[in-house]
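hey so i finally got around to running the thing on that chain from the lab meeting. sorry it took forever, my laptop kept dying and i had to restart like 3 times. anyway pasting the input first so we r on the same page abt which one it is
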Amino acid sequence: MIKHPFPPLFDGNSKILILGSFPSVKSREQKFFYGHPQNRFWRVISQVTGSKMPSTIEEKRGLLLSNGIALWDVIASCEITGSADSTIKNVVTNDLSEIFKKADIKQIFVNGKTAEKYFNKYTKNVINKTAICLPSTSPANAAWSVERLTQAWGVITEYL
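ok and heres what got predicted. didnt touch it at all, straight out
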């Protein structure tokens, strides 16, 4: 079993929560979200929010918090081979209650179908909230260009 190695990112001003599935090998090494340079998350979020592309973890944290965005993952621990979502087994989910106690989250979004699958299976009925599924920013989702992703992800601004 591999445990999620870093905490959620949020504060009292967070209005939306974006949930991924489980951190990649690179993200686990960096102990921060979307650490693989080929993942388009940071490019998409910076374009959607009209912000400068962040390069450091501190800049990434500032970009999210200054725009009311909380970030976390559905899975707290699991068995996984490398970074392949298709190999995820024996899932234990994260407890989201701390985020909902401290922030007025208006909408939950999930980054891709794997996050949606585990959110719907384990979390949705526990917290009695639904999530909007956005196309994955992973490089494995090669059918979606940064431009298409940015257009689809633009829906988050309705809640910020």
